Amino acid sequence: MEKFKNKVALITGGTKGIGRGVAEALLELGMNVAITSRTISAAEKAAKELNNNGKGKALGVKADVRSMESQIQAVDTVIAEFGQIDVLVANAGLGHFASIEDMTVDQWQETIDTNLTGVFYSVKASLNALKQSKGYIFTISSLAGTNFFANGSAYNASKFGLTGFSQAIMLDLRQDDIKVSTIMPGSVATQFNGNEPTNKDNWKIQSEDIGELVVDLLKMNPRTLPSKIEVRPSKPPKN
């Protein structure tokens, strides 16, 4: 669509999984997309692959969401390349799953620093650019942000926190004409935590489905804001 041409999205953790699916969908709209990874080789490799398709331009950026300085540098890089940021997709995340007895301090800290504090850093670093563009923030939470489970203390805490954070900043920013939606997927067929999707995962949500959802939200009339969207597989296997 013409109105998306030359618009710019910054996607954290955009080299694979949900971030990659969103990047592909936005490029197909004609948007330019910057995808981040903690390693520049992964970011540039994914950007090269994305540039073989789509209608916009993809840029690979090295950045670590656990560092505010790194997020500021990423934003500066994107603005230097494209001149603006219209959409932020705060997607980077990880999971450590263990009982509270076995959860290490390092695992707890990494989960909170990446899944929760990392989103704060990404939003904070992008805020001035998003105010100028009257942009849109998407945070990728999880159904684990409203449904707790055993061995999920760190992950549940990070996603419950992320859901609350996202809803609060939605209220903070809507008078600035910045929209905020948090997307809460259930089981998604991705490489999360080292998994490799197979045909057995076809019942799960696919990363391109989340990309399609982001596009639909961007196309929605600006008077309306779906602020929290739960997404589930239509027909999971019977237990």
Question: Which properties best describe this structure?
Answer:
Rossmann fold; 9 strands; 43% helix; seven-stranded parallel sheet; single chain; 239 residues; SDR; Sc_DH/Rdtase_CS; alpha/beta; 6 helices
Topology:
Blueprint: E1 8-11, H1 17-29, E2 32-37, H2 40-51, E3 58-62, H3 68-82, E4 87-90, H4 105-133, E5 136-140, H5 153-173, E6 179-185, E7 188-189, E8 205-206, H6 207-219, E9 228-231
Parallel strand pairs: 1-2, 1-4, 2-3, 4-5, 5-6, 6-9, 7-8
Helix pairs in contact: 1-6, 3-4, 4-5
Organism: Leeuwenhoekiella polynyae
Pfam family, one: adh_short
Family: Belongs to the short-chain dehydrogenases/reductases (SDR) family.
CATH architectural designation: 3-Layer(aba) Sandwich
Total count of strands: 9
- Main sheet properties: 7 strands, parallel
Shape: globular
Question: What is the succession of H and E elements?
Answer: EHEHEHEHEHEEEHE
Mean pLDDT, nearest integer?
94
CATH superfamily name?
NAD(P)-binding Rossmann-like Domain
- The CATH topology annotation reads as Rossmann fold
Structural class: alpha/beta
Helix content: 40-55%
Can you list the strand order of the major beta sheet? 3-2-1-4-5-6-9
Given as residue ranges, the uncertain stretches (5+ residues, pLDDT < 50) are: none
User: How far apart are the first and last residues' alpha carbons, in Å?
Assistant: 43 Å
Rg over alpha carbons: 17 Å
CATH class identity? Alpha Beta
What's the number of helices? 6
Q: Quickly count the domains.
A: 1
GO biological process, one term: monocarboxylic acid metabolic process
Domain Ketoreductase: 7-192
Family: Belongs to the short-chain dehydrogenases/reductases (SDR) family.
Pfam family, one: adh_short
